[in-house]
């Protein structure tokens, strides 16, 4: 059968995802269609290979780190809920959300959560700290073979020196936030939908 | 007992006889005779118009049904889902850095932790929507054409619509399909016999070929509009076209004679290929020869230089694409140095999607789907001939031809390789990105050491 989008996603599920991620109804069905077109095995989950099949992602120097962000610790498959939860980080922040009830749980696309997504791209072993080694590895991914080890090492050292305030030669999430406090995270880490 | 069945038997025989005669006459009058003489009755255009009206009505019903239930309709958008700015790596990273610091750009540091935002966003954008993977599956339609295969709003179909769909199913599988199967069967056997047994003079064999292809075309209920026939490919040239399905060959060959290029297959295809060679020279390769690019190029250029030989038909994309875009042209056929006659083929997806998704459907199920669609409607544009200019290499020439075809057919012009359907992308593209980024980091250091 050719029908993909609406039949396999129930209305209740769409409502739940809407509440959790803040995407609109049409955005969710659109992304579900995208999810099923990536799911070549047709088993309702995506594996790492499914992501790597996207050429534009495969040529992204940090492609593997981004793919990793979708998979929780130790898992090899991501279902649609998990897929949407990760994509929700890139939803633009709307004005009315800024005045929301402060006791409600933080939305997935808040400034803090966007920064957390970026932080986790650096933090390879998920220990909530970016060590010199981890920074070097990520830098190496971004520059390929074009910069020598010494130069890269000095870049890493300088970056940690500037960011590290408590002297443990690692960058914690709080230190990360402080370094990037002036950057326009809301705009640079958001993807605008056309509909 | 006997007496009881006899009159019934007779009646059955008479009925069968009548229906068979009617069938055959219909076949002869509407398909074979016009094909031989190349005329048309205009019935198919009427058919098209009626179908379109029915599809519009069907879509309106679905929309109304959805509104009544207060649900949202799944609307396919052939354009992008997300807004993507075409800014370069350098521009974007500079912008991110500028927003993050009050420092002067000259004394800006080589690396900022915020650089990662660029890669993260680009990566997630490509996960949400990318230009390449959607070209390898059938195009989504805005209105429903009563085929289950193209329907995404299955839950909103009313009773009336279901009845119509059922009727459509009956017509397509019970009437159109057998009607189409007969002549195509006939043609295949006829083609084989004629070509195989008789070594005909070129003129006669051309006529036979055209006739056979025209029968095939009518068999598929293909409604083709040819534009600019004055630019039709001439002998000694190469005809290039965008590739959507094996039917492309039938469509082009029913309007002119071409020499085909391809691999020799086994089985029935192989027999047909070998018999075609006897009638007029095609360029078939053994599987082992295909790997040898020089051999291929030599045979092609030999063929082209002989002005009495038919123009070669080549599909430089190398694989079937879903007719919304044109992907990278392989440069082999553009290196030979002959005149290139570009042809743009655009199918109208509302009547039946002609794209062959070879990873999903085999040849037989594909042909079945084709024969049970409403019709195959397409436009063929013959573009003016092009040759390689001074100082232009094969790749640039190929891109120029590709751009012309894309422009004429209203297709998106992509630089990506159609081979990505099956293979992984080459690492060189990633290395290019890495090189660009490294220049940003290291470049500033060089400037600093200079000042």
Run of helices and strands of chain A = HHHEHHHEHHHEHHEHH
Assembly of the depicted chains: heterodimer
- Count of runs of 4 or more consecutive helical residues of chain B: 13
Structural class of chain A: mainly alpha
Q: Give the radius of gyration of chain B.
A: 28 Å
| Rounded radius of gyration of chain A (Å) | 19 Å
CATH topology tier name of the largest domain in chain A: Recoverin, domain 1
| Average predicted local confidence, pLDDT of chain B | 76
**In one word, what is the shape of chain B?**
flat
Residue stretches of chain A low in confidence (pLDDT < 50, at least 5 long) are 1-7
Quick one: CATH superfamily of the largest domain in chain A?
EF-hand
Distance between the termini of chain B: 114 Å
Q: Which two chains share the most extensive interface?
A: A-B, 66 and 69 residues
Alpha-beta content class of chain B? alpha/beta
Largest sheet of chain A: 2 strands, antiparallel
Tell me the name of the CATH class of the largest domain in chain A. Mainly Alpha
Can you tell me about this structure?
Chain A has 195 residues and is mainly alpha-helical. Chain A has helices at residues 5-8, 11-21, 25-38, 48-52, 55-58, 63-70, 80-87, 95-98, 111-122, 132-143, 149-163, 173-179, 185-188; strands at 45-46, 78-79, 129-130, 171-172. In chain A, helix 6 (63-70) crosses helix 9 (111-122) and helix 10 crosses helix 11 (149-163). The two termini of chain A are 27 Å apart. Chain B is an alpha/beta fold. Chain B contains 13 helices and 9 strands. Chain B has a 7-stranded mixed sheet, sandwiched between helices. Chain B is flat and about 100 Å long. The chains are: A mainly alpha (195), B alpha/beta (451). Chains A and B meet through helix 1, helix 3, helix 5, helix 9 and helix 10 of A and helix 3, helix 4 and helix 13 of B. Chain B: Its main location: membrane.
Offer a quick outline of the entry:
The complex is a heterodimer of chains A (195) and B (451). Chain A has a two-stranded antiparallel sheet with strand order 1-2. In chain A, strands 3-4 form a two-stranded antiparallel ribbon.
